[in-house]
Design a protein that fits this description.
- This protein is about 55% helix and about 10% strand.
- It has six helices and three strands; from the N terminus they run βαααβαααβ.
- It starts with 20 loop residues before the first strand and ends with a strand.
- The protein is elongated, with a radius of gyration of 22 Å.
- The chain has one domain.
- It is mostly helical and about 170 residues long.
- Helix 1 crosses helix 2 and helix 2 runs antiparallel to helix 4.
């Protein structure tokens, strides 16, 4: 409606834009996932370093090598590792969900590789759908990457969590 109370001409109403995209290639998705995992791992490493110094955790005894040194390190770090694992899982879920609906379907990895997460209408997923997808992706990751394997055999490259939430990782063309 214009300022005089009249309807605008039909040609003045903008039409919905058509989205031109193709499913993202598996190698691009994997590289994007690697970038996002590296970012989350950097935060986890900072947490472990800070938490171990605050908790006064000392490293393994000198003279141990190989597997013995690793097991001794794990035993020394046990008080900060479990909270660290929980932190990483929560951080990864929040990061993926927030990036999906606040950053137009892009995480840092997707941004660097030119990928987007979209719903069936070509739009970034809604907050509820993004959170549900992130939770399903986390569950899939914890279960030996179970849902991710589907992308190898699906013609549209969808993982299980993509199928369950009707989302696609695409490369705009």
């Amino acid at each position: 409606v214009d300022g005089e109370g009249q309807q605008p001409a039909p040609s003045a109403v903008p039409a919905a834009g058509e989205v031109h995209a193709r499913p993202a290639s598996l190698w691009r998705r994997l590289l994007s996932f690697t970038v996002d995992t590296a970012a989350i791992s950097a935060v986890a490493a900072a947490y472990i370093t800070l938490a171990s110094s605050v908790a006064g955790v000392k490293g393994p005894q000198p003279g141990l090598t190989g597997l013995d040194a690793f097991v001794a390190w794990l035993r020394a770090m046990h008080s900060v590792l479990l909270p660290g694992v929980v932190l990483v899982l929560v951080l990864a879920t929040v990061y993926c969900a927030v990036a999906a609906f606040l950053w137009n379907g892009r995480t840092l990895g997707r941004l660097l590789l030119g990928l987007r997460l979209v719903d069936t209408h070509g739009m970034a997923p809604t907050p509820g759908r993004a959170i549900f997808r992130a939770l399903l992706a986390g569950l899939s990751f914890v279960l030996f990457l179970g849902g991710f394997w589907m992308a190898l055999f699906d013609r549209r490259g969808q993982t299980l969590h993509d199928k369950l939430t009707s989302t696609f990782v695409v490369q705009p063309s």
